[in-house]
């Protein structure tokens, strides 16, 4: 897990600290069970409990190919981060949450970052789309298995968000025209749009929401 933003700028923990908040960066490989346990343990050590888990780690890029070009190594790399990682962190988080007292109506909340690509077929991105589809189902499974335990689990599915990262469709004129024509809303998405959706699902305002996949796509999937 890298500390430096992919597109440059200040690390997230530094931005939070500069704004008067309290954050800590912890290096971890989410595909390793030991690292996932250590992340949960560190959160509990600092805060006394684990209120929210957001699964945001992702691997795409060079490993995201059509089916016939996807080698076992591509598949394994993608699944290790995009599906095994959330499974390990969710399991560690839920085990911790089950031992915590109920605060309001919940013992804890989980927000998984999925994608439009987990809900429709996307030519050329076989393993990535399958991994995100699996994460959508994992969200439902946790919501159903642990709802009565006071654990809420939801997902946020971003659409076309302008990030400046490698592969950003807005960086190419032809792709940008396509995305703009396909998005009903008057502009493309921004990182803050996704952050606000996550903040809502992580808050007590969303107490009676669980098992949902909140699309942040400007109406793309409604088109």
Summed up:
The chain has helices at about 10-20, 35-45, 70-100, 125-145, 175-180, 190-200; strands spanning about 50-55, 110-115, 150-160, 215. With about 220 residues, it is of the alpha/beta class.
Task: Describe the overall structure.
- The chain has helices at residues 12-18, 33-47, 72-98, 126-146, 173-182, 191-201, and strands spanning 52-55, 108-113, 151-158, 213-216.
- The chain is an alpha/beta fold.
- Strands 1-2-3-4 form a four-stranded parallel β-sheet, with helices on both faces.
- The model has no long low-confidence stretch (mean pLDDT 92).
Q: Which structural class do you get from the secondary structure elements?
A: alpha/beta
Mean pLDDT: 92
Q: How many strands, which pairing sense, and closed or not: the largest β-sheet?
A: 4 strands, parallel
Q: What's the order of the H and E elements?
A: HHEHEHEHHE
* End-to-end C-alpha gap: 35 Å
Write down the overall geometry. globular
Q: What's the tally of helices?
A: 6
Q: Count every beta strand, where a strand is a DSSP E run of 2 or more residues.
A: 4
Low-pLDDT windows of residues = none
């Amino acid at each position: 897990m890298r500390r430096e933003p992919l597109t440059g700028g200040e690390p997230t923990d530094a931005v939070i600290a500069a704004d008067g908040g309290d954050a800590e960066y912890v290096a971890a490989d989410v595909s390793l069970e030991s690292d996932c346990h250590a992340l949960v343990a560190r959160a509990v050590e600092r805060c006394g409990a684990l209120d929210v888990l957001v699964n945001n780690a992702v691997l795409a890029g060079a490993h995201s190919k059509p089916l016939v070009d996807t080698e076992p190594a591509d598949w394994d790399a993608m699944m290790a981060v995009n599906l095994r990682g959330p499974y390990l962190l969710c399991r560690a988080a839920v085990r911790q949450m089950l031992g915590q007292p109920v605060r309001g109506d919940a013992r804890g909340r989980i927000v998984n970052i999925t994608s439009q690509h987990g809900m429709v077929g996307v030519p050329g991105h076989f393993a990535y789309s399958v991994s995100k589809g699996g994460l959508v189902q994992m969200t439902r499974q946790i919501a159903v298995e642990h709802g009565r335990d006071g654990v809420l689990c939801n997902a946020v599915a971003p659409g076309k968000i302008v990030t400046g990262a490698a592969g950003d469709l807005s960086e190419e004129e032809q792709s940008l025209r396509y995305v703009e024509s396909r998005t009903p809303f008057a502009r493309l998405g921004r990182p803050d749009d996704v952050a606000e959706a996550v903040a809502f699902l992580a808050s007590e305002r969303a107490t009676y929401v669980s098992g949902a996949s909140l699309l942040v796509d400007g109406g793309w999937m409604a088109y």
